[in-house]
Write a structure and sequence with these properties.
Elements: E1 6-8, H1 12-36, H2 50-75, H3 83-90, H4 92-95, H5 109-132, H6 143-173, H7 177-182, E2 185-187, H8 188-194, H9 196-211
Antiparallel strand pairs: 1-2
Helix pairs in contact: 1-2, 2-5, 5-6, 8-9
Organism: Candidatus Pantoea deserta
Keywords: Cell membrane, Electron transport, Heme, Iron, Membrane, Metal-binding, Transmembrane, Transmembrane helix, Transport
InterPro entries: Cyt_b561_bac/Ni-Hgenase, Di-haem_cyt_TM, FDH_cytochrome_b556_subunit, Formate_DH_gsu
Length: 213
């Protein structure tokens, strides 16, 4: 494949940011499932020992939130819903058959839903996590509030796990998507098929740069 046929989708800093979030998510999710379900207690060993997991889990969660916050400020304006997204949603049955619908920009409606669901879940996890974080903050809250925070934390965690599973499935289903986050590039054909408006924007930017003296 000629290098001229490649379009940069994610720079190195963006990919590093993404994989920091991904690694933190895996560690937090596995250890968290160990806390939530007694039959999964052995998952806490992913962080060394159950005792160590209870210490490290909240710090890993805060790191994940901070890393995702960088992604949020970088990508939020690409994830605003527009009329093309509504067309995409109405034709979800075609999307399921790997057909593309509408003039999609950098992200399609499904990707935007994952983005907003992830940030909402992470905000809930952070706020509820602070309330139940012993020995640092939990002492400042009463028992009913701690119980409510535990419920919110558990539901938000399960919700985020489901969202990330959908994200992973979509990345594996659409060939070429994983390459973008590993190596940073996609082919022109991939971009034109899956994100035509973004493809035109990149081509126009490239043309303008070539015209500059």
């Amino acid at each position: 494949m000629k290098k001229g046929d490649r379009i940069i989708r994610y720079r190195a800093a963006e990919r590093i940011n993404h994989w920091i979030v991904a690694i933190c998510f895996m560690l937090a999710a596995l250890s968290g499932l160990g806390f939530l379900f007694p039959s999964f207690n052995w998952l806490m060993n992913v962080l060394g020992t159950p005792q160590l997991a209870r210490i490290l889990h909240p710090f890993i969660g805060v790191t994940m939130f901070a890393a995702f916050l960088l992604m949020f400020f970088r990508y939020w304006h690409h994830n605003l819903v527009n009329k093309d997204d509504l067309l995409w949603a109405r034709n979800i049955h075609k999307i399921a058959l790997n057909e593309e619908v509408g003039d999609t920009g950098r992200y399609n409606f499904g990707q935007k839903c994952v983005f907003w669901a992830a940030i909402i879940s992470l905000i809930l996890l952070l706020l509820s996590g602070v309330v139940i974080w012993r020995p640092w903050f939990a002492g400042a809250f009463n028992i009913p509030m701690i119980r409510a925070a535990l419920l919110v934390h558990s539901l938000a965690a399960v919700g985020l796990i489901v969202v990330i599973m959908v994200h992973i499935y979509a990345a594996l289903w659409v060939k070429g998507t994983l390459t973008a986050m590993v190596e940073g590039w996609v082919t022109s054909a991939w971009a034109e098929k899956h994100h035509p408006r973004w493809y035109r924007e990149q081509r126009n930017r490239s043309t303008q740069q070539e015209k500059r003296p």
